[in-house]
């Protein structure tokens, strides 16, 4: 048990995380001719990207020739309530179409327009139908395409391997230490450059669309290695998760349902979204049912339905309806597509949703409405990166995808995640490879760092009578759900911090039965460190930002404050303690600012 | 809901056996929920794979009462209260621990599949494909790689000596999807016969029966591949295809 031996692998670029961003980064780095290792926490092809449903946002202009990167950029910034890193949003909007076409060249088969081009669907906050998709299983198509392209690029893939800590040589990263999940043996990766592509933090909440993997690993690895995190208060609660039966609560219901004609109703049968149109979006949103209904067939002369407002707006509206007593007995509202669309259309466009409701809830969505409510889905905040290169604030470290912050500001638009993974995954792989090529001098790693870490990781096996790691995780999920949820307030956030502190003490006393071979209890005990770290970061940042914006709503500060609109909350770890600071947002150049003056 | 006895396999390659756990599922629970409940409260170290819990990732394959299924899509109300439900690892692949098996065979076979080789694009640099030309392939692309089809395939299950020259149903539909891809120009016929071993499949359709995505693996994938393999040996069909400019030569 106390065997702290480890094997060593060496690469120019090590990519941690094998979803869309990690795979795309690995492919790009390999194309630069450097040696690449790709670490997957699960089996290859099972990462969170596989669950993405609705589509990839890219202004291909196949359905609406009027669409272009400027419109996509504007939608993205407005969706993020202007808190986005403008340069990231610009690069994203400019490069997304090329990344989608590239996937097609690698074998992806998107649904087609009548003239044989890539079909695009409507989604919340996007002015034009913009999402390239495959029914409602776009993520599966994307990860499979990247996976089968990637396995022929000479990348070394390390499956079911978890990185526990990054190691540094002076001020730069030089490697990563972790373990094989199936044997429990330790592994050390020596690397000149490291790309974090580890996804999000959603497993800290009780009602979540996220899987066991989403324990904030990359956020914590970066923080512990000295890198800055930004915008950690912004957590996206997707408006539509399943609510019934209890065992499926939180499972995602794609925004594509609303994009393809579904509307939200309360139990009185009212389309309540008309009561929740914010000033910010009034100009482009229909304020009556007749106009909204006409929009489905005539988009030129009508404004869009408020059912397709950005996710933060819709989630708050649903929450208010439920709190106001107009929700279902299971604390949900109704999402109805069967009234507007025929059964064949629904089964063709939304096959997974049809299957999921039929099998898991016994509901036929071609005949009855779905019951839905908000579910924790995505974190906008993450590792602070340079927009062009994805470089973090520690040398040799790069980050792309959900683990990186800035791109989505205070709220992400649906469909902008898959495109983000491709655009910045590619950039991360490219710049990590260039960094590795330029790297001078040998990599030196102090072996004492590794040995003490190994001993620490094995401690849960040798303690007697400690805590059950599953119970600690459940208590954390309860805390974050109740106190750091969709609607926040100072005294609850302070209470959350107290509870997190006590959970940290408990997490230091976990006890594990069994051995090191594929032991999920041990894996959970180790994941608690990062999960508690990100929970604390989110809570601290939420306490700091005294306004409401996007994925951060403060009951005690209900308005958006222009002064806060120019500030990122930055978190870093110094001498073992978390330090917060308010730092100015990068300023958008005049030619891009002009895009917001036109066409109000 | 009443109590159930879950008889779960616990063990590793050195040995093991079934162990009983009593659980009281809540409404709507699936087998995976019950396994998680056992893990959280009775056996912290119970090994199982899972990710999406919604039939999308294909991680939680197991044999429930002897039937290969996704645990996340198997509802507890399929069973009668008081029933004993056995949960065992998929048995074709080597055991790692409890419900987790070593599925690396599939990843090795995946790597051998000759990838897409594109034809040149349209003059505008993009490609056109009509929906009706890709409907069939999109069916194959629904595959979530749960490997249940590989688990029940007699060739893989019972003939260790054939594994080297046989890919299994998952990779037959992968090959079929590449072969039918409107943009592909590669000739995989000798690979399909010699390396993937299409001839070893005797069309018992066990793979199709267990597919949680309801892909018509045999009818839409394997049989067309077998026909094509037979055609490629027929000199007249081969000549016709060359004259018609259908896919034959590597570009």
Task: Describe how the helices and strands are arranged.
The complex is a heterodimer of chains A (600) and B (251).
Chain A: E1 6-16, H1 20-31, E2 36-39, E3 56-57, H2 69-79, H3 86-105, E4 120-121, E5 131-132, H4 138-150, E6 156-158, E7 161-169, E8 172-180, E9 186-196, H5 217-224, E10 229-230, E11 235-242, H6 256-259, E12 263-265, H7 289-295, H8 311-323, E13 333-336, H9 343-349, H10 351-361, E14 370-379, E15 382-383, E16 397-399, H11 416-438, H12 447-462, H13 469-483, E17 487-488, H14 490-507, H15 520-544, E18 553-554, E19 567-574, E20 577-584, H16 590-597
Parallel strand pairs in A: 1-2, 1-9, 2-6, 9-16, 17-18
Antiparallel strand pairs in A: 3-5, 4-5, 7-8, 8-9, 10-15, 10-19, 11-14, 12-13, 13-14, 19-20
Helix pairs in contact in A: 1-4, 1-11, 2-3, 3-11, 5-15, 9-10, 13-14, 13-15, 14-15
Chain B: E1 4-12, E2 15-23, H1 31-41, E3 61-64, E4 67-70, E5 84-88, E6 95-97, E7 100-101, H2 104-112, H3 131-141, H4 148-152, H5 154-158, H6 169-179, H7 189-195, H8 206-210, H9 217-232, H10 235-244
Parallel strand pairs in B: 1-5
Antiparallel strand pairs in B: 1-2, 3-4, 3-5, 6-7
Helix pairs in contact in B: 3-6, 6-9, 7-9
Description:
- The complex is a heterodimer of chains A (600) and B (251).
- With 600 residues, chain A is an alpha/beta fold.
- Chain A folds into 3 domains: 7-236 and 377-438, FAD/NAD(P)-binding domain (3-Layer(bba) Sandwich), CATH 3.50.50.60; 240-375, Flavocytochrome C3, Chain A, domain 1 (Alpha-Beta Complex); 447-584, Methane Monooxygenase Hydroxylase, Chain G, domain 1 (Up-down Bundle), CATH 1.20.58.
- Chain A has helices at residues 20-31, 69-79, 86-105, 138-150, 217-224, 256-259, 289-295, 311-323, 343-349, 351-361, 416-438, 447-462, 469-483, 490-507, 520-544, 590-597, and strands at residues 6-16, 36-39, 56-57, 120-121, 131-132, 156-158, 161-169, 172-180, 186-196, 229-230, 235-242, 263-265, 333-336, 370-379, 382-383, 397-399, 487-488, 553-554, 567-574, 577-584.
- In chain A, the strands form 5 sheets. In chain A, strands 1, 2, 6, 7, 8, 9 and 16 form a 7-stranded mixed sheet that branches. Chain A has a 4-stranded antiparallel sheet with strand order 15-10-19-20, covered by helices on one side.
- Chain A is globular.
- With 251 residues, chain B is of the alpha+beta class.
- Helices cover 36% and strands 14% of the residues of chain B.
- Chain B is built from 10 helices and 7 strands.
- In chain B, strand 3 (61-64) and strand 4 form a beta hairpin.
- In chain B, helix 3 packs antiparallel against helix 6 (169-179) and helix 6 (169-179) packs across helix 9.
- The termini of chain B are far apart.
- The chains are: A alpha/beta (600), B alpha+beta (251).
- At the A-B interface, helix 3, helix 4, helix 10, helix 13 and helix 15 of A face helix 1, helix 2 and helix 3 of B.
